[in-house]
Amino acid sequence: METSVDSITKAISLVRTIACVGAAIAWAEFLRRRILLRDDNLLSWRVMCLRHRALRARPLRGILDGLCGYSGAVAICSLGLVAAIVSLIFPAARIGTAGLFVLACAHIWAFFRAPQGLDGADQMYILVFSSLALNELVDTKGTRLALLVFLAAQLSLSYAVAGLVKLSSPEWRSGEALSAILRTAAYGHRAVAKWLEDHKSARRWIARLGLAWETTFPLALFLPVEIAIAVAAIGIAFHFACALVMGLNSFLWAFVSVYPALVYVRLNAWPFNNRLWNTISGAGLSE
Amino acid sequence: MAENLVYGLFTAWFLLSVIGQFTGRTTSTLRQFDFLGLIPNWRFFGPLPKTSDDHLVFRNRLADGTVTEWCELSAEPRHTLLNLLWNPGRRRRKALLDITSSLRVLLGPAIPDVSVQLSIPYLLLLNYVASLRPRSATGVQFALLSTDRRTASEDPQVLFVSALHEL
């Protein structure tokens, strides 16, 4: 029979594994487009350091130029990639734990250096790796549970806020905003946008169901397990569709990495005994 | 003791994240100090998404005084199935989107003040287009255009034309 420590460890391990795969891809993508980090390109540190006087004061300036200039930036991106791979391959070793700290620092560094070009997935990586690293400092059963509750709460907050702010917009409720986004060059997909244009009723219902799912996502923590699992499954499908249609591949890994935390908290913090719960218990996520 | 500190940090972090989702003075102040990006913003595409495409164009003044044609910055290729796993182009696309969106906010409806030229988005764009100049260029100018595919005509609307900067 499994102990509760085992199931918490499994949930954290799943969070960590999925996030590390996503982070490895994200850092490799950054390295592929490292030209952006050059001083004559869009994310130039030479310009970004002008945003605050403190960034140009000595001796801080020398340190920051070393860390955020082109060579330092490429080195940190490479370090992020190596840390993600090491943390994935050696999760139990000290080097794997050190990898989590490096990943947390690297993602925070990217935001500090130039937030332009970063997105919600990068924000989620900051939360995931920083909280995983924070837990490693103490690592008791209590802090592990706190870590999973924290991540599940952040995930719920993210969807609820995204849904609520859109609910106030008639453009979103009618589905017009959805097809308008899909017509843009940045997040667009001409075929899907055209289909939505031709099927206005379907467009309206897709938008409304999407908003309803986002807004009510936190209820997954309180609903019967079958429904909570269905809500999570819709989430995976949602991110898969966003990756396929809008090119938001990083969201798939970053957000889905937190789903094991949500499932663990639902299964163990609100123990309604039912059939599916018992089945999942056998799979090891429930105590 | 250390355990309680971790509980406190998680609780405070989550509460600050909740506060960070509101609009207003408190949130603005909070974000001003959040230079490490610890407070997420979960308002994806809401409440009003950006539904137009911005285009950055630039031209140069050459040593003989002639001015080149406007040239559009090349866009990243459109999404393919491979982007599901590998999509490095999204970084540049998003960076350009963020920079032009920030510049649009600074420009506002009025004629832009000269102080816009000292803003980070303006300097980022100027620095970038200046690096693309031909060897014989002595000046560079850029403009921001916008197209909205919801309108029947896809003719771009000129949002902003920069000063001609000496190189």
Overall spatial form of chain A: globular
Strand content of chain B: 15-25%
- Calculate Rg of chain B over CA atoms: 21 Å
* Largest sheet entry of chain B: 5 strands, antiparallel
Query: How would you classify the quaternary structure?
Result: heterodimer
Helix/strand order of chain A: HHHHHHHHHHHHHHH
Biggest interface, chains and residue tallies: A-B, 80 and 61 residues
Question: C-alpha Rg of chain A, in Å?
Answer: 21 Å
Sketch the major β-sheet of chain A.
none
Count up the helices of chain B: 4
Task: Itemize the secondary structure elements and their pairings.
The complex is a heterodimer of chains A (287) and B (167).
Chain A: H1 4-32, H2 45-48, H3 60-68, H4 70-89, H5 94-113, H6 120-138, H7 141-167, H8 170-174, H9 176-182, H10 190-198, H11 200-216, H12 225-246, H13 249-256, H14 259-269, H15 275-283
Chain B: H1 2-19, H2 25-33, E1 53-62, E2 71-72, H3 89-107, H4 120-131, E3 137-147, E4 157-161, E5 165-166
Antiparallel strand pairs in B: 1-2, 1-3, 3-4, 3-5
List keywords for this structure.
heterodimer; A: 287 residues; mainly alpha; 15 helices; B: 167 residues; alpha+beta; 5 strands; 18% strand; elongated
Description:
The complex is a heterodimer of chains A (287) and B (167). Chain A is mostly helical and 287 residues long. Chain A has 15 helices and no strands. Chain A starts with a helix and ends with a helix. Chain B is 35% helix and 18% strand. The longest helix of chain B is centred in the middle third of the chain and has 19 residues, at 89-107. Chain B is elongated. Chain B starts with a helix and ends with a strand. In chain B, strands 1, 2, 3, 4 and 5 form a five-stranded antiparallel beta sheet that branches. The interface between A and B is large, with 80 and 61 residues.
